Protein: Putative cation efflux system protein
Amino acid sequence: MKSDIDLGIRGAWLGIILNLGLTILKAIAGIFSNSKAMLADAFHSASDIIASTVVLFSLKISRKPADKCHPYGHGKAEAIAAKTVGIILIFAGINIINGSFSAIIKGSITPPGSFALWAAIISIIVKEGLFQYKYRVGNAIRSKALIANAWEHRSDAYSSIAALIGIAGAKLGYEFGYSKLILADSIAGIVVSIFVIKMGWNIIKEATDELMDKAIDREILDKIATVVREVNGVDELHEVRARFTGPKLLIDLKIGVDSEKTVKQGHDIATDVKRLIFEKIPNVEDVLVHVNPKRNLEKRS
Structure:
């Protein structure tokens, strides 16, 4: 049975290999069919190769154990990789806008060839397949970098759809004498850029939230609290916090126990809390339990 890291690395390599083939196909189709949208799409696929390579290295780094320089592990390498993927997407989108506007200003009247249409169709099928595969694997192993990379593939599929529409529109405009439709190929390039930039921004925002230790979902915190209160000897739960480091959770707790218990008894209760959390909460990296004397609020009233 393959480990999480093996599944992630296999997905990254699959993306690199297929994107290399698509980049070559789209570039040839764009050049020989004179399609600005297809050339822009080829650039998008080339950026996908860089993104998948970044993810490949981040998966290897993030699974390294904690060391003297990184006592909390290397899990946030995935968030850094996801942010890098987002930046690559935004720059790819800006490049597509620039190329498309340039083509519109120049007013090229040569329609794209049929080769570009077939390249777009092949790209849509392959990229959607890559998205489905990487998204499922990324969720299974809780890899933000792999999920971000999956969405990069989905954005490439969208860009290929836009390119397909633009190329088809330009061909129809040429064949039926609608001169303005010939520019549809370049306009499609601008539509592509909107998908790409928006996707890049969303990925950057999510990765930044993790790097800044944004609070996790209330549902997970409530589940942790429920587990803690099941432990015999825990009279109060004063605080529960958690954050992600890559796919793993780091949990900090403050519990209240009877003040007459010995230090060893308090330690044993904390150990039970930690053990039960590891048993019932998935993907936990570490749990820090701080033991306080219970507040006994009922005696103060």
